Structures are given as C-alpha cells and as structure tokens.
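Title: Prediction job returns without error message
Component: structure pipeline
Severity: low
Priority: P3
Assignee: unassigned

Description:
Job completed but the reporter wants confirmation the result is attached to the right record. Sequence as submitted:
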Amino acid sequence: MSTESDIAPGRRRPSTNLAHDLVSDLTQQIMRGLLKPGDKLPSESTIVRAHGVSRTVVREAISKLQAAGWVETHHGVGSFVLERQDTHGLRLNVDTALSVRDILELRLGLETQAVALAARRRSAEQLAQMRQALDDYQQLLANNDSCVEADQRFHLLIAEATGNPYFVQILQSLGNALIPRTRVRDAERGDVDLAQLATLANQEHETLYAAIRRQDPDAARAAMWTHLSNSRERFSAG
C-alpha cells in the first residue's frame, strides 16, 4: 500500500488505470484503520500532489468509493469515511459450515488468481514483507513452535499485493481456518506428522515466493495451484 508520504509529488504510477489504483490505496487505508470512520479524506489537491494524478482521476476514485459505500461526500466540506455495517460484509461460518476440503477448494479458485496479480503488481516493500514471513515461518518451525501465524501472514500479504482489497477481505473472513492444519482434530490426525507437513508446505511457499520475486504470473499461478492441491491431498480425506 502507498501512503501520501511514500509517493513523491508529480510522480505517476505505471498503471493503465490510475483511478483503480487510487481506489485500492484508499480502500486499504480504510480497511487497515489508517483512515477511520468519521475521518475526512485528504483534500483533492493533496491527493493530486501525493499520488501524482489528475483531479479527474481523484474525482473518479472518490465516486467509486462512494458507490462502494466506503465514503460519503458533503459538497463544500469534503469526503468522510463511513462506518461499515457487519450485515453488509461477507460473513462465513467457518466453524461449522466449511470443511477443510471446502476451504481449500474456495482458495484454489481465489488464490491462484490473486497470486498472478500479486506477481505483476507487488512492490519491493511487499516482497520484503513476504520474505520476512517465510523467514519467521522457518525459524518457528526449527524451534518446534506453531508457524500458523507466519503461514497466514504470507498468504494475506500475497492477497494485499494484488492491490484489490476484496481478496484480503475474503481471506481475512476465514480467520485461522485459512490454514488447514488448524482444523485437523486429534482424532482425525492418526499418524500424520504436522511438522513434516508444515515443512513440505514451506518448500512450496518458497517456490511461490520465487515466482513472485521474478514477477512471473504464470509460474506463480502454477505454484499456488500445486501448493493448494497438495494441501487438499494432505488434509482432505476422500
């Protein structure tokens, strides 16, 4: 995500849809709480200078945010972040409704596309954060500690690197159920060595990371398909 301080005045992004990029930036700031309900968005002129876009692009982006229910505009005053109602958001009853297989099938459709977008759009900072998540994962694994948080963080960072906040929103709605081994009961585990499975998963993560680093969307898509398909085989029966 880019903030006003990250973008030099007059600098334009290499994008064919600057309004879409600006909507993604502002939406992610809202979702992360950097812009809270009731906060006033920066002025049009401030956004123009910070993001290096035209006033037309800013107005188009604000219009899209209004249509999506993120902000409301009071003419002559400015645009303000709206409170999002839970009843309007995506809610998945992962505790009872979705099995490991259900979740992985959902993720196969979602994350194969997300990682291809992430490979094209990721920033150097986002790539560094992914590297840190994998390093943390490996350290936790070596210490025989739970690496679920680092695993989840890596996948959420991929979603964030798409620049599309809805990928993040859907994955966040899964919570810890995003990681299959958090849903495997002791009685179902049998002789399965979860540490060994976590090691195999991390090897697949490294392949994913390498494709994202090379900015190779086809390789990234194939690596995610392999990773999630293997996870489905490792954790799903029948």
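Comment from assignee: result matches the submitted record. Confidence is low (pLDDT under 50) at residues 1-16, 183-192.
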